[in-house]
Amino acid sequence: MGSVVAIVGRPNVGKSTLYNRLVGARDAITDDFSGVTRDRKYGFCEWSGKRFTVVDTGGFVSGSDDVFEAAIQKQVRAALEEAAVILFMVDAQTGITDLDESMARMLRRGNKPVFVVVNKVDNFTRMMESNEFYSLGFETVFPIASISGSGTGDLLDAVAELVENEDPLENPLPKFAIVGRPNVGKSSLLNTLLGEERNIVTPIAGTTRDPVHSVYNKFGKEFILVDTAGIRKKSKVDEDLEFYSVMRAIRAVEDADVCLLVLDATQGIEAQDLNIFSLAQKRHKGIVILVNKWDLVKDKQTNTLRDYENGIKARIAPFDDVPVLFISVLEKQRIFDAVEAAMQVYENRCRKIKTSELNEVLHNAVETIPPPSVKGRFPKFKYFTQLPGYYPSFACFVNNPNWVRDSYKQYLENQLRKHFDFKGVPIELYIRAK
To answer: How much is the pTM?
Structure first.
């Protein structure tokens, strides 16, 4: 089923407020007039032991009121194609509108679970009135008030039952996803990797809603490419290409072990790239940054590779221990270096460190630079161990976790990176009471 949850609905029903409540952030612009969500927003939510990505589709409608309806229809179609669960938001204050009904008709034609989320239910009368939304034809209706959060717990319980946690054990081969904004060269890279000898490409049968997976098996390397680049181009690409590409990128990140983030050298790293980067980081995926079209950069004298790479690392800090490769898909330059880098990052992500080695390195680090005191009290580290899991995470046992500052956690992480190769892989340190 996957684990992408899309919030759809006409403008001004409170999609961004619900999104902010679910992902625990205030990073979508919310205001009380319709159509203010201009930015594309996706973050993740943890509930009942499940982690899933939430997409606020409001950000994918642009332009004036007359194009709203068409744009919203595209957004609903894409959500039907890509999401595992759809939250269809309506407004108890205004009741059912024509636009709600036309969206409901489209959603009923899909085969995805749809929850009707009736927002602004903040008193008993509205609670009773929310029953009218059953007439939209869906089994499950959740009355909520997204500003105060009332009712969102029941909604999340229902969502958590339907989404899947990633289960990387289905196939032992590493999974690499090529992600990035539209037109940076993802398709060309995929075709270059797979294209020369199609006979050794075996597509893995999957359902229509999954990204296409292809097995790469050449030069002693075998892995699965999660193909988001091969988006069958929609007839009207202009408006919704960005939306489809974002939904696909999110799905691919969920699906992969390592993400190859392709940038356009002529444009640099943009906000959308940083969004995808931070999503991959939060999901503990390996990351390799590929700067494509370096051959097209005019002013190479003043803009050297090193300066360019430092510029990228400054934007992605503090997690900047990431391989950055300059490639040209068109000229087939350094394409196979990219494969090597991805394989190395995959190995780093699977790395297990002996407890004795780990304790030796980190106890030395603590002795060299002891943790600063908090209100005159010093944390004492007793023991370190690597936790079982799909990505590198470590438990640090200490007399009082509240006395360990974030800056000191960062210092310990840097020491781990210095002594063990975790390049391209996010690390998680959990400070626990002994």
So the answer is: 0.67
